[in-house]
Amino acid sequence: MNVQIDNQTEQLHPVSFEQHHKISCFLAYEYRLLDEERFDDWLALMHEDIHYWMPGIENRRRENLLEHGFYAGDHMAYFDDGLRDLTRRVSRFKQASAWAENPATRNVHQVSNIEVYYGETDGEYLVHSVIQSVRSRGLDEQYVIYGRRTDVLVQEAGQLKIKQRLILIPNATLTCKNINTFL
After folding, report:
1. What is the count of structural domains for the chain?
2. How far from chain centre, in Å, is Cα 125?
3. Is 89 within the bounds of a domain?
4. What would the pLDDT profile of 21-65 be if each residue is shown by its tens digit?
5. Domain of residue 36, residue span
6. 72 found inside a domain
7. Which of 22, 69, 174, 181 is 20 to 30 Å from 103 by CA-CA measure?
8. What is the pTM assigned to this prediction?
9. Would you give the end-to-end CA distance of the chain in angstroms?
10. If we measure between CA atoms, which residue out of 110, 152, 157, 151 comes closest to residue 134?
11. Assigned domain for 173 exists
12. Structure confidence by residue, pLDDT tens digits, 102-129
């Protein structure tokens, strides 16, 4: 994953208010597509070289965090997907045999705390955000996933595309039965 999480924000260059608003609307639109199960439209927002990554979080002693952080690129990941993998997952949602989605999951996604900076190349943006995903199934199953995202968006043929997504959740263990969702 090429996304670098840079804690020294003084080195980052924020975009204009107008560009921030445009990207915030893009992220809200993306989540509305997922909530409405418009998965093909959602896939159209992905760059052909998308890397959609949600590493597993590891419990580490504080003295090891500076060197190793909470996750490692070569360890377990909940998602480590390219466009082909995302397309397969979307196709699976559409199958009658997808038992994890029968009855269908009702989703509500929320994105907030959006920070937008210019990326390394022209037409590229580094976006930090906080997410919440509420998933409900059946009569009383409900799961909430919180996390932080770091996205790299690119302007391609006049449209924004998601090229990289890093999703970090605070949980070392997920309590939900499955993670049959997009974040």
Report:
1. 1
2. 15
3. yes
4. 999 999 999 999 999 999 999 999 999 999 999 988 766 556 655
5. 13-168
6. yes
7. 174
8. 0.87
9. 17
10. 110
11. no
12. 777 889 999 999 999 999 999 999 999 9
Integer Cα distance of 101 and 97 in angstroms: 9
Alpha carbon of 121 to those of 77, 124, 125, 151, 154: distances in Å? 28, 6, 8, 14, 9
Can you name the residues that pair with 129 across neighbouring β-strands?
149
Average pLDDT over residues 154-175: 89
The pLDDT of residue 7: 46
Tokens representing 14 are 């924020």
Give the model's confidence band at 5: pLDDT under 50 very low, under 70 low, under 90 confident, else very high: very low
Structure tokens at 117: 């900076």
**Residue 79: beta bridge partners?**
54
6 domain residue, yes or no: no
Report the C-alpha dihedral over residues 50, 56, 58, 62, rounded to 10 degrees. 30
Strands of the 46-55 sheet, one edge to the other: 77-81, 46-55, 159-168, 141-156, 124-137, 106-118
